[in-house]
Amino acid sequence: MRRVIFNQKGGVGKSTITCNLAAISADKGLRxxxxxxxxxxxxxxYLLGRNAATFTPTIADYFDQVLQFTxxxxxxxxxxxxxxxxxxxxxxxxxxxxxxxxxxxxxxxLYKLRCLLxxxxxxxxxxxxxxxxxxxxxxxxxxxTDTCLIPFDCDLFSRNAIYHLFRGVSDIRDHYNxxxxxxxxxxxxxxxxxxxxxxxxxxxxSEGLPIIPTFLTASxxxxxxxxxxxxxxxxxxxHKLTIEFMRVFQTLQTxxxxxxxxxxxxxxxx
Length: 270
Prior knowledge:
By secondary structure, the protein is of the alpha/beta class.
């Protein structure tokens, strides 16, 4: 299964969600790949530590080869690197991704990420971290994926923008990837004792959105795990937030997210 973690708003926890779900997948014995498409390289640093920049070639190198027409499908696996964690692999990002953006957009290379994924061999789960914008890299990821997860950080701005995100996914589905669907909304940084988060989530539920039933609560453990370059399953296995991540992963694996009929229609996205 290929999943994109996507939101055009920064700071909603895309990289944290990507890496922790991937780490849980790998911990369960599933061959798992993370693709970091964000020039900030947060997922790469989370999984590879402070030496992340030494891991080459990166996804930026792949796109450079695409632009120079030097990519050789027989060497596609060179972009995949083993992380320190069993069964968990990554195609790391690089700040130089930003330099290739305009050239890639001008040359209509939107299907090239999907081509790479088709060449690198089988993985049980692929998690793709995207930049906070609907640019070439995000569009390429949505074209290459099966499903999309939308982090929601219980913020009014996120609440106002969520249908815009759905419309963006719908556009990609209509024009490039007919099988694409929003798998679910991941409620992140939830504070159960606060009024506004509960109000916002209740509104989304009442509107029939596919909310993943386990909410990820706010915790300092996330920042601590970032600093140690250890996903929570390896940093604090018995912590409440780790258990929440495990429940979210189980929900995804068993497809237990309510998908109202209205959500499946184009009219819902319009």
